[in-house]
Write a structure and sequence with these properties.
about 160 residues; alpha+beta; Aminopeptidase
């Protein structure tokens, strides 16, 4: 017996989804920064909240920022989020993925792949032709997903505690 592949749409995040997202994302981002040995544990969550507030000063209405819920229409559920902004530090503007998450219960079912394919369409719709992202070194699973989708390493920071 075969199952149909998952299909998702990227639906603009609602205000209620945004409020929940920001709180959960700040905690998760702080944990990743601590795990990467970039931040001390004390104060990390507050520091992450400040970074999110600085990145999204107008919330969902922040110019050149696009926040989506990853929505499975067949199941009528949100399975994750994806947020990108327009980056202008290269010769041509690009889409920079600020955050991406498939919720734990829906991982390894194809949602990540489908979300990034849908993202390509959104990025093309606004006239951009390149997507860039950051991935923590300890997140090997995400790295494998991005590599399968054709993303290439463009820069690597390395560190050693001595």
């Amino acid at each position: 017996m075969t199952t149909d592949p998952v299909r998702v749409i990227l639906r603009s995040m609602t205000q209620d989804e945004f409020v929940l997202y920001i709180e959960n994302a700040a905690v998760a981002y702080a944990a990743d920064k601590v795990k990467a040995d970039a931040w001390a544990k004390d104060g990390a969550v507050e520091r992450a909240r400040i970074e999110f507030a600085n990145s999204l000063p107008e919330g969902l209405a922040t110019k050149e920022h696009y926040l989506f819920s990853i929505y499975d229409e067949a199941l009528n559920i949100v399975v994750g989020i994806i947020w990108f902004s327009i980056g202008k530090w290269q010769p041509q503007p690009l889409a920079f993925v600020n955050d991406f998450e498939v919720f734990e219960a829906y991982r390894r079912k194809g949602y990540g792949t489908q979300a990034f394919l849908a993202l390509e369409d959104k990025v093309k719709e606004i006239g951009l032709h390149k997507i860039m992202l950051h991935v923590f070194g300890h997140n090997k699973e995400a790295q494998r997903l991005y590599e399968r989708l054709g993303y290439q390493v463009t820069d690597i920071d390395m560190a050693k505690n001595i």
